[in-house]
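Support reply, case 0932

Customer input (verbatim):
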Amino acid sequence: MNMKVKEKFVQLWNKFSRWLSVKKLAIGAFAAFLLSLFPILYLTVVNRASGDDYGYGKYTRPAWVATHSLIEVAKAIGQTIRQYYYGWQGTWFSVALFTLQPEVFHDKAYIIVTPLMLLLWIGSTFYLFREILIHHMKIDKWSYRLITILFLFISIQFIPGKKSSLYWFNGCAHYMIPFTMCQIVLVWLLKWGRTYDKRYFIGILLFMTLLGGSNYQAALLVFLFAVYYGMYHFSHEKDKRVFLLCIPLATELAGLLVSMLAPGNKARGGEAFGLSAGKLFGTIGMCFVQGFKDAGTYLLEQPLVLIGMLVLFLIILEAMPISMIHMEYDLRNGKSSFHFIKKYPLLSCFLLICLYCAMQAPALYAGVEVSQGVGNTNFQVLLITLFGIMLILARKLKEVVKYKQAAAHACLVVPGLMVLGIVAFICRHGIKTTTDYICYDYISSGQASDYKEQMDLQTRLLLDPQKEDIVIPGINDQQGPLMHMPVTEDVSAWTNYVTADFYEKNSVVSIPRPGWMEKYGQGE
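Our regenerated output:
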């Protein structure tokens, strides 16, 4: 009887395992992923420009309002870059992006910020994973889709700084847009190494040059991408055309040098800010210490991230084909494009770790307080590093173990997914840190609708052509996932005067809301 029960259980389990295919998982994950975007996108109608958005749009908005000429806007961009280059920071490409914040062109245009960031983030990740998983790893399309969706879900839901990754244009322009450009450059490097198509080289040259004027993490990341790929490609292919990469490397360094030598950097970082060989070497060692410390913080304090990455590992283990284990294929000459991984797996893992730890260098070198965007980039590169290491480990594990796909699916992957699901349920308290939960809490509490009403009123007051000195009701800066730098009661405060400049007013000041309603509310 026991034997019959056991056999029946095994039959049912095998039937369930076969039914729970990668395709079904991918479709389910895609549906869940789309649903997870609803709370995030709902806040697009609430989101508004604030603080730095106004400061960097000081010249571009009046230029557009007065002329609707892109030439005049371009002149205003140049004027803004010059002002900040000498007065505050040298990141010329980022400043150019800052000047184009959507409310420069229309007071309701800020609604596009979150959809645009999600499009760039999701699109560049699918583009990168398609190149790696399908073209180089020969993983099937449903597994590629499932892996990419799960990776994106982890990235979007658990990114530390929600404001600077999804809602605040200034933070997104300085960190998210350059990060997506880095992912695209990596794809172009891999495609160019296969085809030597000049289109990809031109794209690499353009993006790397621009990234020299963005945040230092992105500039360093794309530089290391190019150096890593150039060294690997030449060691394997012995093709001297790879030395053409010296051109974009040089143009990026030139742009980075222009950025680093800006007089405004000393205003922001202090007189001690500058190039120092001794400080540079000391920073390298600290990068590893801080990198491992941050990684431990991310993974131990938020176990759902670690559980999610383990789920990805199981899916990668199942999806990786036998041809990848033996490196039997290549798109050009019958050899694997990732031959280096097979030959030097430990070195490959170490180089990935170095890539992640290097992201600590700009903040450690500058020694100043950093924004949310720095932590976001560290987190995103950590996930990419872990993903790369998982690919290497999965290939090595299949190589050293007699791996039978059907048996592993029933005895390892499906049970592993179920166990990780149970562990995730136990650690469900971490859900409160997700982007969805924070957005939902902000919406359901009524704060989102209240903020929208207040910002609509503030905008109407600021757009009133009959008034030059504007008094607005106060708004607090605790706005959930949204960035808000409130106008204060001090007319000379930074937020006040940049808001006044943006709307071409003499002055802007706030007073407590009850007092404002009593004095001005009847007129509204």
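We compared this against your earlier run and they match. Two observations from our side: The longest strand covers residues 469-473. The chain has 26 helices and two strands. Please reopen the case if you see a mismatch on your end.
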